[in-house]
Amino acid sequence: MKSVCILGATGSIGQSTLDVLARHPDRYRLFAVTANTQVDKMAQICRQFRPRIAVMSDQDSADRLRQQLQDLPDITLMAGSEALTEVASASEVDVVMAAIVGAVGLMPTLAAVRAGKRVLLANKETLVMAGHLFMQEVEKHRAELLPIDSEHNAIFQCLPADLQPGLQHNGVTRILLTGSGGPFRTTPLDQFDQITPEQAIAHPNWDMGPKISVDSATMMNKGLELIEACWLFDVDEQDVEIVLHPQSIIHSMVAYNDGSVLAQMGNPDMRTPIANALGWPERIDSGVEPLDLVKVSQLSFEQADERRFPCLRLARQSIIDGGTSMAILNAANEVAVEAFLQGQIRYTQIAELIEQTMQHVPSRNTDSLQQIIDDDLSARAYVKQQISSV
Ligand code: NAD
Ligand code: MG
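# magnesium ion complex -> structure
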């Protein structure tokens, strides 16, 4: 019996994780769940799964949750960011699902790593912000890091099980990172200024939270995933080729020196990578529909156009610049996406604001968490100031 903590249980990944856990009551029990402020959803989760601890972001939400769960006094309710760190590193926990969205996921995910847990990493922002430090800590504390992002989970599955350090020593020549191209892959460029948040979050293949859906539309998601791949698999950005694949059936590929290219396929449903990482090295049932290739009928591939998707160029640039540039890119993106979702800026301003921020906020070469967070905050302040001045 493995004991599981889900950070971000009320979100899209959190819900998919609960769905997989519910299929295996003999293997997993839920120790702790966390959420921001979604009290009703959290109450439902607590009723169904009876975790030992539920954490909300603020005391008011925790109090409201207590009201709803008066008949379940055995569930301990906690609030605040320290409680997140506490449950993520609790001695009772074996597996931590890191599914909080954004930079706030960094500290609790790092806490899970430092406690040597099996960490299922959905929160890509953690690696984007502090990849070097994070991977060092994984090594140092012998944590077991398993990628949940479907592309990285696919790459992980296409690599040899007895992986030797350095992908080239395994005969790997290239990683092919696939992306659907999102809802605006064929939209005429002169219409980009009119794109609304509703259009941007309507992803053709995946059902995801609002922030990552906008990131998929701008392809900043693929840019963040490029950074994520470089840290996870210890490769350079030139070793990763981004390929558009509108059907989202192949989730990424690995090319070998004998000419073989291995791909991992499946229906676009996050329960596959979640089940893969939960059960690894065993395979467990995920509830995902079997793939019907005849029904899919066609798999197509295109080059990603950086004029259409300037965020791809910016993400590559941040890797080349190194240091805290990636944290600055990520922070600027988070603020710009939020402002776009709130109707404060136009769609095309997301990339413009990120580029301006990268030009104006100096980056540093550092593994100091405080300096990374400081640069993240400077980038946020800069974008907010730019937005309020227009
Ligand atoms: P979501 O918006 O649906 O859910 C986010 C979760 O984080 C919620 O439980 C929310 O309560 C919690 N949260 C938000 N702000 C918080 C805060 N300030 N403090 C504490 N908790 C907070 O997001 P999602 O789509 O599930 O994505 C989660 C993470 O997984 C993201 O980093 C995303 O990039 C990554 N990811 C998601 C998908 C997907 O299919 N949804 C795929 C790959 C990677
Ligand atoms: Mg992905």
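# post-check
The longest strand covers residues 28-35.
Residues 369-389 form the longest helix (21 residues).
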